[in-house]
TrEMBL record:
Lineage: Bacteria, Bacillati, Bacillota, Bacilli, Bacillales
Protein name, UniProt field: Pseudouridine synthase
Keywords associated with the record: Isomerase, RNA-binding
The organism's place on the tree of life at top rank: Bacteria
Stretches assigned to the RNA-binding S4 domain: 2-66
Native organism: Thermoactinomyces vulgaris
Family of this protein: Belongs to the pseudouridine synthase RsuA family.
């Protein structure tokens, strides 16, 4: 027996938190009975579960690495008709969702999956999954700025956790620098805001690593499915 919200998340209906909201709002039925109590346990192989009177089907769990290009929204749809990450997965029978987000102007590694439990744990601060970015910034950050980033930066939504920072290069031709930053938080536009807070505007940003996963072998707009070995390794690190 498993908690109803966990089953909904695993089925790709919604995130666990969103699944809890669906239950509380009375939109979920189990064996024809409306359920509004969180923590209700079900047998996903025997019980008939419905959301908005539509049966919930447990899909085969699939997880992909996607190289998100710039000017693509990390969403399943956009009211303004702009390109979204879901557009690249229309031919996949299962409906996969992004794990976290990358900004519209940021490119790089994005995990797409219909495994709700995996998504929950990858994003939970408790597990501190490292994400590595390469940022091109205006100017040349000095030792003081780099030290600030390593200690934590005060933003409007509070202090950031310490980051690992590596200075990569500086171009005197256009006075820009490249830095590698490793963080485990996932605040909105966090890397851009951190660098701006220490006096350096981001010109270009790419996420090159999520945990042990990298962009190796992928071009912009391409994706590949994780192997069983990669899935097991990923789960071993966070479960």
């Amino acid at each position: 027996m498993e908690r109803l919200q966990k089953v909904l998340a695993q089925a790709g209906v919604a995130s666990r938190r969103r699944s809890e909201a669906l239950i509380c709002s009375g939109r979920v039925k189990v064996n024809g009975q409306r359920v509004t109590e969180l923590g209700t346990k079900v047998n996903p192989r025997q019980d008939r579960i419905e959301v908005d009177d539509r049966p919930v089907v447990l899909e085969r769990k699939r997880t992909f690495l996607f190289y998100k290009p710039e000017q693509v929204i990390t969403s399943m749809h956009d009211p303004q008709g702009r390109k979204v990450v879901a557009d690249y997965f229309r031919h996949i029978p299962e409906r996969v969702f992004p794990v976290g987000r990358l900004d519209y102007d940021t490119e790089g590694l994005l995990i797409m999956t219909n495994d709700g439990e995996l998504t929950h744990r990858l994003l939970h601060p408790r597990y501190k999954v490292n994400k590595v970015y390469i940022a091109t910034v205006e100017g040349k950050p000095g030792p003081k700025a780099l030290k600030q980033l390593e200690k934590g930066v005060k933003l409007k939504d509070g202090w950031t956790a310490p980051a690992k920072v590596r200075f990569l290069s500086h171009s005197s031709r256009d006075n820009t620098s490249r830095l590698e930053l490793t963080i485990h938080e996932g605040r909105k536009r966090q890397v851009r805001r951190m660098l701006k807070a220490v006096g350096h505007q981001v010109i270009h940003l790419i996420r090159v690593r999520f945990g042990f996963l990298t962009l190796e072998g992928l071009s912009k707009g391409e994706f590949r499915e994780l192997t069983d070995e990669e899935i097991q390794r990923l789960k071993k690190e966070i479960l």
